[in-house]
Design brief:
With 90 residues, the chain is α+β, with helices and mostly antiparallel strands. The protein has one domain. It contains two helices and three strands. Strand 1 (12-16) and strand 2 (19-23) form a beta hairpin. Helix 1 crosses helix 2 (65-79). The chain is elongated. 0% of the residues are buried.
Length: 90
Amino acid sequence: MDKSKIFDEPSSVTAKEGEVRVDGPDGVDVSLTPEAALESGERLIEEAATAAGQRWLRELPHHDSRRASAAIAVILPNLRHVPRVAHPQA
């Protein structure tokens, strides 16, 4: 798989028969347990917020990478708009 490709189309996600199915660009086709899907979703939200902050900071006129890293740490909590989900106990 060529990891240098960046896709701008979101994946399709469905719940069926107690599993979560993800169909995405470039042939992504995976089934996850509900627990794995919840954790993956949280990770996606967190990393998407970080990447959005990085993009925003990169576009500032006087970009300084050291300051950018510190600013991301401040901005990230404000970008999290989805509450954390408690994982069901197995």
